[in-house]
Structures are given as C-alpha cells and as structure tokens.
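Incident log, structure service

09:12 report received: a user says their structure output differs between two submissions of the same chain.
09:20 pulled the input from the user's history:
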Amino acid sequence: MIDFNVPPFVGKEIDFMREAALGQKICGDGPFTKKCQKILEDLTHSEAAYLTTSCTSALEMAALLCHLEPGDEVILPSYTFCSTADAFVQRGAKLVFVDIRPDTMNIDEKKIEEAVTERTRAIAVVHYAGVACEMDEILAIAERHKLKVVEDAAQAIGSTYKGRMLGNIGDFGCLSFHETKNFSMGEGGALLLPNLDLRDEAEICREKGTDRSRFFRGQVDKYTWQDYGSSYLPSDLNAAYLYAQLLDYDRVFKDRMNTWRIYDEVLRPLERDGLIELPVIPEHCGHNAHMYYLKLKDLKERTAFLAHMREHGVLSVFHYIPLHSSPAGRKFGRFSGEDVYTTKESERLARLPLYFGLTEEDRDTVIRSVLSFFQR
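09:34 re-ran on a clean worker, output below:
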C-alpha cells in the first residue's frame, strides 16, 4: 500500500537530536529552538517567530492576544480543522461560519462583511492547501470594522500572496510542523508576529505567564508570574529534528513541487474532458505544494474513487467534515448566510499521496490508478 503521507526525513535529524541531548539542553527555548526561529523569521520576513508545541497552541496564543471576551464573535470558514475553532471557543467566543469559494476552497471574502456584527472581534482565515485567501480585501474589511486577522497558515509555510509570505500579513500567523506537513517536528508549530508590538505579551503567554524571556535578556533581575499563560514551548529535541529540514528547505520544497507538477500535468486532460476539477492557483498566489487534490462529481463518485484507489494499493483520503455540521459546531457557532459550497465541495474532494521522497515508481502507480478509474 502506498501511504497517503510519510513524515519528511532529510538525513541529519538524528545527528542534531544527538547534539541537543549531549548538550544537556533538551527543554524549551534551547539552541535549536532559537536556530529554527531565526530561520522562520528570515523565511517569512516576520519580526518574531516562536516555536510552539503545535499549530493548535499557536492559535490559542493568537486568540489570547486578540483579548477576546465571552460573547465576542470570530468569523471563520467552516471548512477547516477543529483547532481553528477550538482556540477561540476556549476564550468564550461565538463562532460565525462563512461559506467558502469553490475554486480555492478558502473563505469567501465577499461573504465576510455581511457576517460582521457589533460583537465581531476577529477574522480567522485558513490558507487551504497552501493557497492564499484574498488578503487585501480581508484586511480592508478588518480595518473598516477594527478587527484582528489571524492567519491559520498551518498548510502554508513558504506560500505567498502578491509576493508576501503567508503568516506575516495579518495580525498573527500560525504554522504547523505536524508530521503531515511539509516540514515536521512530529508535533509542533509556530506563532509569527509581523511587528513587535505584542512581543512581550506573547512571550509571557508562551512562558507559563512569566517574564522569563525578559529575565534571560537581562531586562529584569528576576522573573515572576505576570499574567495568564501556559507551557507552549516544545522540547529542543523536537526543534533539532525540525532544524535539519529547515536547513534543507529548498530540497524539500523542490521535491514536493516536482510531484505536484507531474500530477497536475498528467491529470489536466481529465479536467478538460469534464471528468474532474483540479486545484486552482490564482496568478497572484505562490503555493508550496502542500497537497494535490481532485474533485469528483459528487459524494457517491468520490466514495467509489477512494475504494478504487485502495483496491489498487493507494491510500487516497478525503478531508474536513464542515465544522458547522458537527455537534460542537452547532453548540458553539452559527452559519452566516447560506451554505452553497462548503458541504457540496467538501463531499467531492479527494487527496492524493504527496510527500517528500515519494518515489517515481509509487507516483506512477498513483497516476495509473487515477487514470484507470476514469477508463472503466
């Protein structure tokens, strides 16, 4: 069976983890954590990058830094992972789900403003498949209504919008380094800050509510409990694993992009024949080959397609169940307007195996399996 995902491994991970262990500094904010953060700051052009235990943790920090109060509202797409919503629910916020665009599967920027109320405090955008939301229009809405913008860029490291790195466009950016992502530390993430206005507050939040970071910079003579926080620091062992991949960023990026482009070139004729729909990448967006998906006619055909792929030794999967249809989604939120595309498009989408190191032989098997489904 060809796996849907294999965690990235470039070869130096174990060496760096051994170095961290022998250096007797394996807790949070060790040397490898700082090295990773510097690479992320340079890559994304952020003023500050903080490694976290997960993208979920980064989102929780962003929600805290939005200073939400119970009853405040946050606008977000329903087509996303539950972490996007959980972070705001924990602050007592009400979720307001908005429909997606059928082309990019991102939040429909033209539906956001009609969802704004006097209780709205933030917009959480999700850059699906590493393809940017329409940030200019979203930022304009946020400015008109004095809203914070949180970028869930879990899938979007290295992706761009009009030349700007995703995660460094809104007020906060959240990355993921889960094993299913382009770069991995097993479990992990990062919070990006486009400016330093909230640096001290972010560090206090990340350091269990203490000003420990200021103490180590010599800004205070002792550190104490200052505010609410939690332990969002990952182990330096995890950071050492990630560091190897960030050093080899170009090789990982090119490898994934090569697979993405081959899939796209071979499968486009099926789209021209009206059999499937394939990813849309707007001209002003640069993606990172996070995933390759196709959209079948309907749920019935997708179910048959996934079964066909498995029969041919390929694990292909679908993605999110829309949050507004879940028990928690109904409990903590509401859908603004009409669900025209969210459910319909989510039921058609199937993802193909795509990971660093996918062999040419396995890739060809995936392609043959897809083609044979439509040749039946």
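09:41 both user submissions now match this output. Likely a transient worker issue. Closing.
09:42 reviewer note: The chain has a mean pLDDT of 96. The longest helix spans residues 249-272.
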